Amino acid sequence: MSKHLANANLVSSYDVSYFRKFSETRLRAISLCAEMGLPLYKIHHSIVIGDAAMLIANEVERQMGVRVDYEIVEAGALLHDVGISQIISDDMPEHAYIGGRIAQDAGFGEKVSRCIELHDCAGFVKEYVLALDLPRTVAKDDLLPETWEEKIVAYADMIISLEGEWQMDVWNDDTCPARAYFDYISTPLRIRRGLTMSKSHPQFEYDIEFNRSMRRFVPRAKYETLLRPRIDRMVKSIRASGMQVPFPSLAQWP
Fold this sequence. Notes:
This protein is mainly α. The protein contains twelve helices and no strands. It has one domain: Hypothetical protein af1432. The N and C termini lie far apart (68 Å).
């Protein structure tokens, strides 16, 4: 018997029960992320966004009495960052547009594509879109989510990014979305257009209000029970990639 086989009982334990619950949609979406070359830590990030989106969708249905398309929500959430695989830096807002095109070309449909295209920073107001001349397929000047599915995907990304990665209190800190996004949002305008943004810009006002309106769909007790183990796994994956968590803030909030 080989030494490797003799020591097989020494292999660290593992649990595949979570994986066995993956839907066909989830498997297809994760496979596409891997095929496109999305980094492992971003795939783990996307899986947690998928879990958060399903929790939020359930709460939206319960509180609002509306019907949510869970398949669109799950696919949109899992694929929200797939466009990052095709750009040189993950701080380019164009990744949402690229991701939408990838998803549609892969057969996920226009509604999923829209969830992806409208997710970044919970959406961009028209003043920002027009100033940067951001690419878009939607027939409007802004890139703001409109349907419940689009809003759910956008907020799932917001809350996991801010709470899970930045360790901000999204339930009680109204300004945390603006403070977290300030550098990300303002840098492209400064570099590409020579423009300076202030905290009174409509984009930051929108982000603050979006968080206020959507956080009620994330009960904190359920969040801690259902999502914290997956968030912890995501954080370990981010750290293993060489990145610091919580992310150091480079923002100069004026």
